[in-house]
Protein 1
Amino acid sequence: MNKPLDTHELEAAAPQPAIPTRKRKMLFVGLAGTVALVGAAVSVYQTTVAARHVQTDNAYVDAESAQVTALTNGPVAEVRVVDTQAVNKGDVLVVLDDADRRLELQQAESALGQIERRVRGYQANNGALSGQTAAREADILRAKAELQRAQVEFDRRKPLAGTGAVSGEEVTSYKTALEAAQAAYAQAQGNLTAAQGAHAANDALISGVPLDQNPEVTAARAHVEQARVALERTVVRAPVDGVVTRRTVQVGQMVQPGTPLMTVVPVQQAYVSANFKEVQLGKVRAGQRAELKSDLYGGKVVYRGRVVGFSGGTGAAMAIVPAQNATGNWIKVVQRLPVRIAIDPQDLAAHPLKVGLSMDVDIDVSR
């Protein structure tokens, strides 16, 4: 005998009504409309927004860091700064022992004094030698007159030597006097030549210029200036405003010209290096505006920026070990090109950044 089914069993066993065809069509139409609306929204976004902007999160804060090096040699006497310390241009960073540089300056100044005195002696001798030359010229005039007189006296008596009017002894005496006058005249000429040579040599030493333009004096003064500069360089000053980093110098260290001491990073002049994919750069131009966000402050702080320029090569090409794409096993990879973006100074002053911090960059390429 069959057991009667209860109400629940009867409902479960009853056939379910099928979804009406009209309702299914409406669902398909709604789904298609939704897809169409999403596609249209994406298309509108790509046309009105995305096409006008290029973005990247591969960007970092950078700055033109100033490396501080020693410009003269000597032991380090003082180090007045530490890493992370803010400094202004001209602040004293390091002081070297200046004992050797002071001695060199004193020696150069002493040498300059000696040379100036010597040149003044040349100038004084020049006047004396001019007087000597004039005296030698006067001696020649006297010797010439004496020679002419002796020549006349000898010529007057020589024809009379055979007549007995003049004795042979007298003729010999006047001949001797003529020869002596000739010798004196030749000596006077030699003295004049020597005096003129001495005057010319002395004049060449002073070159006819005043003391401060004399070559020996100017060379000595250059040595004094060089020694003075070397002394001033024993005090190492900050070349720019910024923050001290990578300080390696220590008190007592012996440094040579070119020895790295520390680096000063001018964070007030920081900029952003944004590495865009090459496919993003078709519309990017220098001068376009950009918005930047830092991971340090988050999205609540937006920096205003401007595209300054582009690197001369991609990161791969400028790497220490660049890729060798001609080896045969080449795989094409989308390259990135560094783009330099200047940050508005007011925004940077309000929210300071440090070199190396990550940034998000959005460039408006519609203009």
Protein 2
Amino acid sequence: MQRGVVIGRNRGGRKAALSQWLPAVLRPASSGPLRYWQDRTRLAVKAALAAAAAWALAKYAAGQADPYFAPIAAVLGVYPTVVRSLREVVTYVAGFVLGAAIAVPLAVGLGPSVAGIAIAVLAGMLISGWQRLGDQSAQVTFTALFVLLLGGNQPLHYLTHRAVDVGIGLATGLAVNLLAFPPLQLRPAEHAIGQWGENIAAALRDLATAAASPDSSGRFWPRDDRKLTAAAERARAAARQARESLRWNPRAAVPQSVPRPDGAVIDALDVLTARTRAAARSLLDGPERADPKPFPSSFGRQYAEVLRALADPVCQLADLRAPWPEHHLAGACGRQRQLECLVGQLPADNDRSVAVRHLVRLTGDMIQELAGDSSPGN
């Protein structure tokens, strides 16, 4: 099979990390409330540092009397990822410029009057509908009102000072975010991808129970299906966030102990999820379920063995720090061959045989997916 682009998968062994000696609250977390509050705390500390530094620079270095725009703009330069910070800075500057363009002619022509305010808000709200401004669209109206109401009869004089504040604030915020350990969202992606693999493995084990026990009601499957959907969404979102955190990030050039999200693994887990769902449909809802003897008793037991044998390789595949699952896959391949020999003896002219062969093809596809990803050079 054709593998996707792999983004720096770390195949090395697990190394003892210095973080193991830290208190639990300070150790890098992969997910959950601890990870959330660790990220929020780092972001808050950096934002506070950037705001204070921007105020000090604007007031004491640039000589601005009341540089209140400086700390506000500095906070905009501190976002969870560097590329997001750059994007917000650009859109903030665009909103500021557009707001100023609305306010200056209004201040000269109408001044801070009822008509001037109404026109400024009307124009600002319309222009802020431009989708490229994103979360900073409100800055158009805010800037227009600030310049109109506080600039008075000298809007350009007021605007010049505020532009200096904004420039200092944005530059300070970006500098702090770039220099003070810009965040990498690799641990959440590693955890989410691993969890996805564990959910697939759990579903395979449940299906193995159903295959070995034809009387099984399959009540477990809706739960497993929901878990697969949620795990896949979390893993894809976490991988996107991790890749975004690497863009324009100086730490991306430094080797990390945490592996980067692997596009080939995500593609393989997508295929394995689809094959697992197809097997569930055939086992639990197919025409063979209505048959009091849906398939030879030996088939159900052997098919269950294949499904169980696939669970560990799937988990190993989703573990970005583990080698390819070649060793664990050998058992599944042997059981699959035995199953194919058994199915080859069945007649090919009834619905039951067609359904059974479909089930065998599905496990064969899973093995090929795992083997394709584990083959060197693919």
